[in-house]
């Protein structure tokens, strides 16, 4: 049984509880982060901590712990649950005022903080990355502040189900004809040696893996172009891939039933996955 963290306590998962009035539960009034663990160490912890602070600030939410405590809790959960490869999920909500109200509760209301581990042996050497992912395109009907990592994940979750029903692995979302991002990852296409991905704005999540991968790509003398691209351009690309803390760099081999290249993971995506894993392991804490 897992040991999880809730509001200052480490507890068996069956004993950890949150109020039915919690605004995370009633209003999706909460933010989250997912940090990966490789070799028992945290990947890109600093980036996730900085983005968490930004999400909280954008929503006028109080941080229940500072960055040092956050790191200590992450490490303690890794230790208590003996995680070698896996993920740490963190969620902070505006807490509970003991009732349901659209108006925010008083500022001194304690936020709720919950963290738990997911054990994923083989996360780095994932067979799915060798096969590559098949994706479909769907309309992006989410709200306009996708740069804030909120727990409003119903539509991305429905998008995943639409993909599964279509025999695919995931979905890319389209707004005004342009790809925004994947249901839980950032989206890229490759033409020749050029990597193309949407520029940062309120329209997409500012992926921590995205930042690292683009930096590493530039360091490896690959060309990076941050601009909008259409799904038609994507279907005609040489390769495509996604990035996220949970899947690192994941090659995409098919879009809306159309195979990219020879239908196997492209060399740019494969190389970036290798470089990302190698470099982020060096910096893991
Ligand atoms: N999702 N875009 C969206 C919509 C996401 O949900 C995520 C991450 C990303 C990639 O961000 P990062 O590289 O910081 O993980 C982009 C996490 C993994 C999740 O919801 O499980």
Provide a short characterization of the protein structure.
The chain is of the alpha+beta class and about 280 residues long. About 30% of the residues lie in helices and about 30% in strands. The model has no long low-confidence stretch (mean pLDDT about 95).
Structure report:
The protein is α+β, with helices and mostly antiparallel strands and about 280 residues long. The chain is about 30% helix and about 30% strand. It is built from eight helices and 15 strands. Strands 7, 8, 9, 10, 11, 12, 13, 14 and 15 form a nine-stranded mixed sheet that branches. The relative contact order is 0.15. The model has no long low-confidence stretch (mean pLDDT about 95). The chain binds N-(5'-phosphopyridoxyl)-D-alanine.
What's the helix and strand layout?
Blueprint: E1 3-6, E2 9-12, H1 23-27, E3 30-38, E4 41-42, H2 45-58, H3 67-80, E5 86-93, E6 112-119, H4 127-131, E7 133-139, H5 154-165, E8 170-175, E9 178-182, E10 186-191, E11 194-197, H6 208-219, E12 223-226, H7 231-235, E13 239-244, E14 248-255, E15 258-259, H8 267-283
Parallel strand pairs: 7-8, 7-14, 11-12
Antiparallel strand pairs: 1-2, 1-6, 3-4, 3-5, 5-6, 8-9, 10-11, 10-13, 13-14, 14-15
The protein binds N-(5'-phosphopyridoxyl)-D-alanine (PDD).
Could you give me the name of the CATH homologous superfamily of the largest domain? D-amino Acid Aminotransferase, subunit A, domain 2
Strand content: 25-35%
**Count of helices?**
8
Total domains:
2
Distance between the termini: 25 Å
What is the share of helical residues? 25-40%
Helical/strand content category: alpha+beta
Mean pLDDT: 97
CATH class of the largest domain: Alpha Beta
Task: Give the tally of β-strands.
Answer: 15
Name the shape in a single word. Answer: globular
Kindly identify the CATH topology of the largest domain. Answer: D-amino Acid Aminotransferase, Chain A, domain 2
Biggest beta-sheet profile: 9 strands, mixed
Radius of gyration: 19 Å
CATH architecture of the largest domain: Alpha-Beta Barrel
* Ligand roster: N-(5'-phosphopyridoxyl)-D-alanine
Q: Catalogue the unreliable spans.
A: none
Helices and strands, in order, run as: EEHEEHHEEHEHEEEEHEHEEEH
């Amino acid at each position: 049984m897992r040991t999880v963290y809730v509001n200052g306590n480490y507890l068996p998962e069956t004993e950890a509880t949150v109020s039915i009035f919690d605004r995370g539960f009633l209003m999706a009034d909460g933010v989250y982060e997912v940090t990966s663990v490789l070799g028992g160490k945290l990947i890109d912890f600093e980036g996730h901590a900085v983005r968490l602070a930004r999400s909280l600030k954008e929503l006028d939410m109080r941080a229940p712990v500072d960055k040092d405590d956050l790191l200590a809790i992450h490490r303690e959960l890794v230790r208590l649950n003996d995680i070698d490869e896996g993920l740490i999920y963190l969620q902070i909500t505006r807490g509970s005022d003991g009732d349901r109200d659209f108006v925010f509760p008083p500022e001194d209301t304690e936020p709720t903080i919950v963290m738990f581990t997911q054990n994923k042996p083989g996360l780095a050497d994932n067979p799915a990355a060798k096969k590559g992912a098949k994706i479909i395109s769907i309309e992006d009907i989410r709200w306009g502040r996708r740069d804030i990592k909120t727990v409003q994940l119903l539509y991305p979750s429905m998008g995943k189900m639409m993909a599964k029903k279509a025999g695919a692995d995931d979905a890319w979302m389209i707004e005004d004809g342009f790809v925004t991002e994947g249901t839980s990852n950032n989206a890229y296409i490759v033409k020749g040696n050029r990597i193309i991905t949407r520029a940062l704005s309120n329209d997409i999540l500012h992926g921590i893996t995205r930042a690292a991968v683009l930096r590493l790509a530039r360091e490896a003398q690959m060309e990076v172009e941050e601009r909008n691209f259409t799904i038609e351009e994507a279907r005609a690309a040489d390769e495509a891939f996604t990035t996220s803390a949970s899947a690192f760099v994941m090659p995409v081999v098919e879009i809306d039933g159309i195979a990219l290249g020879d239908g196997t993971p492209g060399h740019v995506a494969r190389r970036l996955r290798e470089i990302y894993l190698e470099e982020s392991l060096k910096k893991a804490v």
